[in-house]
Amino acid sequence: MSSSIPVIYSTHRYQYLADAVCRCGHFMPGKLERKTFPDGERYLRVNSTLVGRDVCVIGGTITDEDTLELYDLAYGAVQYGARTVSLVVPYFGYSTMERAMKMGEVVTAKTRARLLSSLPRAYHTNRVLLLDLHTEGITHYFEGAVHTEHLSARRLVARVAQEVAGDDFVVACTDAGRAKWVQRLANDLGLRASFIIKHRASGSDTEVVAVSAHVSDRKVVIYDDMIRTGGSLVGAAQAYRDAGATEIYAIVTHGVFPNGALERLEESGLFRFVICTDSHPRAVELESDFLHIESIAPLISRHIPIP
After folding, report:
1. Nearest to 10 by CA among 39, 34, 40
2. Cβ atoms < 10 Å from Cβ of 20
């Protein structure tokens, strides 16, 4: 293999995405030996020659264990002579704690960003590629010589929305926090955007009081960055249905789906189906007639440096 071909590694749970990226372009799958000792300690051995090579390590921070595996792999790439190291983090899993709301809270998004920033520098550069962050400011938590790049799946979402809903539909969101995302997508498509207007009934409960655009007898595509429990998505879909929407689709980047969340979406009867990317392995595991998966591998492959 030519030394100019980038070498692709991944954490264990993201091997499916590394394989898809390798199918998208002229990349070399990295050879890796991994096992677990009886006491739970991990063993990793890089079996590819990396001196002077551009190395890409793919892995989402879906758990602390996965985060450490990503760090260890990237560290090994630097240790064994990589020219550049690019960490591709399809899902940055600490967005819940992206800022402190109470005295004494630890901002986990910042501590994890600084952990990845602490990697020793490869000969040329270290890069971190992030996708559709829940809070865009997280990129500023990375520090030192590491270069961050925030990728967007908006073009993929636009294509898929037109494939499922045609050329005439309303682009919608679940709450005001996603309004800018939805407006950008609607502008790209030359369509109208709709927003949910909520009223806080109590300290913990909100109720939908209005829908900002005419959706009666229209198809509605709800666009969001992620689905976790799905509660906000169901509430929004019910509001659009009550306002007269004929068909409702949900398209998201990150499908986390803990504790029966996908089943609750399907059982609500509000959605034709849900579409999300393969940025999170949980979504890939749950793919079905109701949950359609679109790969981000082509997007990632376009951002891997090729000398």
Report:
1. 34
2. 18
